[in-house]
Amino acid sequence: MAQYNNHRLQGLDYLKKIPFSDLKAFELICNALPDKIHLQLANSSTIRYSQLFSLPKQSEVYCNRGTSGIDGSTSTAIGGAWVHSLPTVFITGDLSFFYDANALWNAYLKPSTRIIVINNHGGGIFRILPGEKDTPAYDTYFETVQQRSAKQVCRDHDIGYRKASSSLGLQWKLKRFFKPSDRPQLLEIFTPRKLNDKILLNYFKMMQVE
Ligand SMILES: Cc1ncc(C[n+]2csc(CCOP(=O)(O)OP(=O)(O)O)c2C)c(N)n1
To answer: Which of 9, 145, 170, 201 is most buried, taking the most CB atoms under 10 A from its CB?
Structure first.
């Protein structure tokens, strides 16, 4: 137990020092989530990052991890929101979000729905897994680097849009994000593509230091 606590404290110490990144964004989001929610998590780094932090104890958490597809995460979240009594928070990566953006093209969007898109400009998971990163072939066929923003998708479907690209900015946006509104809201968080993997992999290393 003492050893576990030691590693945990090392991890917490590391989190205090890191720059804005996927890891930092997830820490801030998980700290800001309301208590009673229906939480939907997309594949693949979303679910991996979320399990590094405490989630609200009274929330119900869903992720289609078994088949690990990125193709229906938004549809599942929007469908789930319609039948669930608690407000839905859906966290997703950019590729997963754009892949299934037509899920938002329906007349049953609940105003209490909140969507958080972690836009790291591609499949961030492929930077975390071992492989030859930063080659043209890898960027194109594995990471699928892209420069889109969710803003236009929000405009198409009359969804409130806001964005953040720093720790302070994100904390500020999260303060108001879960307040009741008459339309669903989306928060797009831009993170540094080439830094995210280094920060996460270092986190695991830092916790293991004896
Ligand atoms: C339908 C389908 N196609 C391809 C994959 C392979 N795949 C797994 S994760 C992933 C990238 C996800 O990227 P993004 O949604 O941006 O999330 P991030 O990893 O950056 O958090 C891909 C393409 C998949 N799981 N399902």
So the answer is: 170
